[in-house]
Amino acid sequence: MAVQENAIEKPNSYLNKRAxxxxxxxxxxxxxxxxxxxxxxxxxxxGGFWIVWLSRWPVGxxxxxxxxFFLPRFFARLADKLKL
Length: 84
Prior knowledge:
By secondary structure, the chain is mainly alpha-helical. The protein has helices spanning 12-43, 49-81.
């Protein structure tokens, strides 16, 4: 087994902050894009598009945020069990 001489272990607090940042960033990005597209599909670019989208996006974000914390771990374990 090869040993990496320059490998630096990062403390748990770094990994937790990184995981938190990535989860929030992914939830924010996906909820914005999905709610934007679904608003276009449902009402089109009408006069009230921006108001409707901005009122619906927080609902998507509050739905996506808890999922972004738990689903990656679930799928990582599933992939390990499936030996992927």
